[in-house]
Amino acid sequence: MAEEKKDEMVPVAAEYEVVDQVDDQAIIELMTGQTIQDYVYSFKQGGRTVEGLTLAGINEAANRRGGIQIEEIKYEERENSWIATAKAVDTITGSSRYGAYEQAKNAGNRPDPFAFTKAIHKAQRNAIKQLIPVPVIREVLNFYLHRKSTGGNAIPQQSAPQSGGNIANAQKAAFAIANNLAEPLEKKGIGKADLWDYIKRKYSVESRNDMSEMQWTQLSAELKAAETSPQLLDELCERIKQLTAASQESEVPVPEETTEPETASANETQPKNSQFQVPPF
Length: 281
Prior knowledge:
- With 281 residues, this protein is an alpha+beta fold.
- The protein folds into 2 domains: 148 residues, no CATH class; 106 residues, no CATH class.
- The strands form 3 sheets. A 3-stranded antiparallel β-sheet has the order 3-4-5.
């Protein structure tokens, strides 16, 4: 186990900081439905060129190699951070490696809505990268470095999108992940209406239009975590069932509950592909 952790040591602080910033951006792009731009990083340090794979590049290399999967994810919430550990397994060789990461809850002086998701993804990254053969890493690295040098993978300098667009992207990402979770949740007795009722009660809203961008991103992080691990999926189901049970025990009626049947009739006329636009939401 000591040898496995040795691979987790960061070679230089500057490289670690650059990779961390790039991977932070990749996770945000993933959670907000954007296209991930960076698969590799390359910069000068101390007269030498430092090159390597970002989180997206590591996942790409793992996909090319095949047979690498995450078998276990654990996490712990602390006062100012999230700590996550992940176990990656090479099903071809039988080897396994552990990765860990501690992510601060704040980005500067502001709460980071992606903190939990960053911890989960980076722990997986740190585990997976230890199992990828060097030739595969070089293949992916050379491919994307060539694309960057020829402009094929250049990062466009875009102005920050308007807040309305951010909310739309965050909402779109949450709906997509929720759609992916529909079947696993159904197998555990959690229907779409149960999920959205949980979301309404958790965020104290009556409609998806009442949710803020931060709430959508927090929801995406929670759902994405459940999608990556059976353990986290079970924990999500347990939270949903506990909140449902608590609401059923309460004798206080939910405001505007009587108007929902009409809403249901209206929504039933919408196209079938609006998969998660169920009556309560």
